Amino acid sequence: MKKWVHILVISVLVSCSSDGNQEEEYVPVPTSLNIPQLFQEKLIQPVIPTNNPLTEEGIALGKKLFFDTILSKDNSQSCATCHDPQKSFTDNLQFSLGVDELEGTRNAMPLFNLAWNFDERFNWGGDAFGIEAQAFEPVTNPVEMDSKWTDVEQKLQNHPEYPTLFKQVFGISTIDSTLVVKAIAQFERTLISGNSKFDKYLNGEASLTPEELNGFTVFMDENRGDCFHCHGSENNPLWTDNQFHNNGLDETFTDLGLGAVTGDPNDNGKFKSPSLRNLAFTAPYMHDGRFQTLDEVINHYSEGLKNSPTIDPLMKKIDQGGVQLTTQDKADLKAFLLTLSDNDFITSTDFNQQ
């Protein structure tokens, strides 16, 4: 991985106030993402919003906010409660519990490589447009933090540190929700996972077992696993297309997914394809956490597909119930999928609370 790139600036500028006295104006230090070499070779560069450029101070503030329970109604939960770094920023529960022990209806999505989601639709159903927008909703959601933004803003404003930190990042000490989510988004854009065993294999730094190699072949074979259309390949190290698909989970839908957002019946039952990175840390699986193990996931695609009016055309063997993998191919596919897990990501001090 390349080193953090720092643009040299003078951190403190001296200016004159209207009464002739000199006052110090803090200028945050611009920085850039720590992008793995493989990503630089295979992917286009992320687009950072011009109204929320990355700075060292902004990322640090976003990280502090991400781990701070001050965002919740009763100061009991933070973003990290449901998005634990050591679980690849999820919580291993089928449905996360909010501050009042209320349960949602969807599994907490892991957070990484968000800066390459160029479609800009976030969440399982695509209801948030952009990383900044995604960070707004959990604060007020009654089954999550269940707070009010006006209350959160007041708590932050009365905090001994936050007004100064916001002043350093945004040039203003008056804190509002827009600045809060901008800071969190800066931190979330730095959550880059790109150092798995398979990444090292592609870089010539590791070898795969015969089982793992066969599993990759199964993954890429249209007549066996046929996984790559939605989940990428060695040429797409995100391991997702960041699109929405009906992958044959149900014949009828209680959760409409993307259809609830667009209002188009043709989108009913479509959910975002999650990345296959870090599956070793992110069970349970699917938008509703219905599968506890990778074996269950593989069995679903092998012989558990269910037909419905919006089934994705990529589920080409729906009439046979799935791709009908052999026992050996199932085991090898699982072995390959586990090579996409990045232990350095979940232990990084850049992403864990100090």
Q: What does this protein look like?
A:
By secondary structure, the chain is mainly alpha-helical. It has 2 domains: 46-192, Cytochrome Bc1 Complex, Chain D, domain 2 (Orthogonal Bundle); 197-344, Orthogonal Bundle (Cytochrome Bc1 Complex, Chain D, domain 2). The chain contains 14 helices and 6 strands. It has helices at 37-42, 56-66, 79-82, 131-140, 149-157, 162-170, 177-189, 197-202, 210-220, 228-231, 258-262, 294-303, 327-338, 343-347; strands spanning 12-16, 22-26, 121-122, 128-129, 244-245, 271-272. Strand 1 (12-16) and strand 2 form a beta hairpin. Helix 9 packs across helix 13 (327-338).
Quick overview:
The chain is mainly alpha-helical. The protein has two domains: 147 residues, Orthogonal Bundle (Cytochrome Bc1 Complex, Chain D, domain 2), CATH 1.10.760.10; 148 residues, Orthogonal Bundle (Cytochrome Bc1 Complex, Chain D, domain 2), CATH 1.10.760.10.
State the total count of DSSP E strands.
6
Q: Using the alpha-carbon principal axes, give the shape.
A: globular
Class computed from helices, strands and strand pairing: mainly alpha
Taking strands numbered 1, 2, ... along the chain, how are they ordered across the largest sheet?
1-2
How many angstroms separate the termini?
A: 22 Å
Q: Identify low-pLDDT runs.
A: 1-20
- Could you tell me the CATH topology label of the largest domain: Cytochrome Bc1 Complex, Chain D, domain 2
Mean pLDDT: 93
* Text of the CATH class of the largest domain: Mainly Alpha
CATH superfamily of the largest domain: Cytochrome c-like domain
> What is the helix/strand order?
EEHHHEEHHHHHHHEHEHHH
Radius of gyration, in Å, reads 22 Å
Please count the helical segments.
14
What is the share of helical residues? 25-40%
What is the domain tally? Answer: 2
